[in-house]
Amino acid sequence: MNAAPPDPRRWWALGALVASMLTLGFDLTILNVALPTMAAQLEASTDQLQWIVDAYIVVFAALMLPAGLLGDRFGRRRMLVAGLAVFLLGSLAGALTDTPGLVIAARSVMGLGAALVIPLGLSVLPSMFGEEERGKAVAAVTASMAAGMPLGPLVGGLLLDHYWWGSIFLINLPMTALGIAACLFLLPESRDPSSPKVDPLSTAYSALGLGALVFGIIEGPGRGWTSGWVLGAFALAALLLTALTVRERHAVRPMLDLALLGRRVFLLNTLAATLGTFVLSGLLFLLPTRLQETDGHDAFGTGLRLLPMMGGLLVAARASTPLVRRLGPRPVVATGLVVLCFAALLGSRTGPGDGYGFTALWLTIAGFGFAFAMVPAMDAALGGIDADEAGSGSGLLMTLRQVGGAVGIALLGSLVADTYTGRLDTTGLPAPAAEAARESLGGAHAVAERLDLPALAASADAAYLDGMSVVLVVCGAAALATAVMAALWLPNPRPAAGPDTDSHEPSPAASPSSLSGPSGPSGPSGPSGLSGPSPAMVPAKEDDGQ
């Protein structure tokens, strides 16, 4: 019996999915260049800006896996349409709000939509494309997410130079609406009723526990690290995350297979990938404020000046694959982490009078370090587990990466805020003006301009750069410690033997989309559209800590 011919509309559907993923891709970075503008126009403090970014990531990290399972059980197209609709409504609400609290709420709604869209946007592809075409479709969708990263600052900069800050949310509406229409009219429905059931209690534990952890880190500088609110948040986070761990370890079919962390090859590679996301997310949060407020660039100019890091990321992501085939992942991951350490320590030497050339240099080096550490680490983590564990393994890897991104923004932002507040000289200022200056760098510049106090602006710039230096030293130390662990204990599976070794395509996990910032996917396949193990690696079963 002849197989049914493929649906000719599948390429139109793929185009709409690519447009939707591109929107989600540049939404990862478009907000960063808008933070100084939002701080000024919404009178948002540093901790509120942290929440505006982190609300999206916390919701996404907590709900991504259960959202993918909902699609598997109740229909991927149906849940994909629901996710795009939720993302559209969140974007519209974000554009129309006028207070930091409402923007945080809108970003939370957008995170819920993204949690549905990203895994399901990949998992619908097998139902549309045969084996011969599926690789091209997967590459198109994942590359569109990666391409959105460098486009985000540029698109955001253009919009902010001509319109108000809410335009960065409105840009999502037409492309998301196109994706909804394509899903409704072009995508076939598919599901996997055998997938694990969503556990509401585990979902609540993860969402509330991660939220409490981020709350404590963000609120620590303002409320005091020993305040009841902060200590209570940390205690609640520890209680809920411990309960999540116990529940998942005893579940027959857990949503997060935490037993995988007992395997050294998976644990250390996941640690390296999570550290990369931690540092990248924190820098993308802090750098735009430094470039706009201390260096005086406009939003579009800031987007341009972030391109060296993005360029280094994308170039090294491609270059890492042949290196891993030749040497194995261990030396590539460890070297990437050492390069990242060097870039961070180099960046920590930035002074108020240094030009952009020095910044471009260390950003480019940092981009190379990120990619050489993260891409092989993610690929090796998934290549070291059995095929039937690929879905749960990639789900756990993605979740931990998003947690790393959320904690990176919270912790590194709080380090900068603590250092900035401690080193800002507000001597002689009236109490309200001093408080406004301590709230944020933008607030200090506004006070300095209003009171004609150039010395206050200079003190604020120097204090912020001091905070950045502290952050970069911490990042460098963390990268070096992880590099030592990788070099000493990371298994090093050799490339698969045979004449076709060099002809393998890199696994989706090793594509540039693996670096899609705080909420990028790790790749397709698996029960919820997540990455499977790389075909270019022979899993190292020996001495992996099992």
UniProtKB/TrEMBL annotation:
<feature type="transmembrane region" description="Helical">
    <location>
        <begin position="199"/>
        <end position="218"/>
    </location>
</feature>
<keyword id="KW-0812">Transmembrane</keyword>
<feature type="compositionally biased region" description="Low complexity">
    <location>
        <begin position="506"/>
        <end position="519"/>
    </location>
</feature>
<feature type="transmembrane region" description="Helical">
    <location>
        <begin position="265"/>
        <end position="287"/>
    </location>
</feature>
<keyword id="KW-0472">Membrane</keyword>
<feature type="transmembrane region" description="Helical">
    <location>
        <begin position="137"/>
        <end position="158"/>
    </location>
</feature>
<keyword id="KW-0046">Antibiotic resistance</keyword>
<feature type="transmembrane region" description="Helical">
    <location>
        <begin position="470"/>
        <end position="490"/>
    </location>
</feature>
<feature type="transmembrane region" description="Helical">
    <location>
        <begin position="164"/>
        <end position="187"/>
    </location>
</feature>
<feature type="transmembrane region" description="Helical">
    <location>
        <begin position="102"/>
        <end position="125"/>
    </location>
</feature>
<keyword id="KW-1133">Transmembrane helix</keyword>
<feature type="transmembrane region" description="Helical">
    <location>
        <begin position="394"/>
        <end position="417"/>
    </location>
</feature>
<feature type="transmembrane region" description="Helical">
    <location>
        <begin position="224"/>
        <end position="244"/>
    </location>
</feature>
<dbReference type="InterPro" id="IPR020846">
    <property type="entry name" value="MFS_dom"/>
</dbReference>
<dbReference type="InterPro" id="IPR036259">
    <property type="entry name" value="MFS_trans_sf"/>
</dbReference>
<dbReference type="Pfam" id="PF07690">
    <property type="entry name" value="MFS_1"/>
</dbReference>
<feature type="transmembrane region" description="Helical">
    <location>
        <begin position="51"/>
        <end position="71"/>
    </location>
</feature>
<feature type="region of interest" description="Disordered">
    <location>
        <begin position="496"/>
        <end position="546"/>
    </location>
</feature>
<feature type="transmembrane region" description="Helical">
    <location>
        <begin position="360"/>
        <end position="382"/>
    </location>
</feature>
<feature type="compositionally biased region" description="Low complexity">
    <location>
        <begin position="525"/>
        <end position="535"/>
    </location>
</feature>
<feature type="transmembrane region" description="Helical">
    <location>
        <begin position="331"/>
        <end position="348"/>
    </location>
</feature>
<feature type="transmembrane region" description="Helical">
    <location>
        <begin position="78"/>
        <end position="96"/>
    </location>
</feature>
<dbReference type="InterPro" id="IPR011701">
    <property type="entry name" value="MFS"/>
</dbReference>
<feature type="domain" description="Major facilitator superfamily (MFS) profile">
    <location>
        <begin position="13"/>
        <end position="494"/>
    </location>
</feature>
<protein>
    <submittedName>
        <fullName>DHA2 family efflux MFS transporter permease subunit</fullName>
    </submittedName>
</protein>
<feature type="transmembrane region" description="Helical">
    <location>
        <begin position="12"/>
        <end position="31"/>
    </location>
</feature>
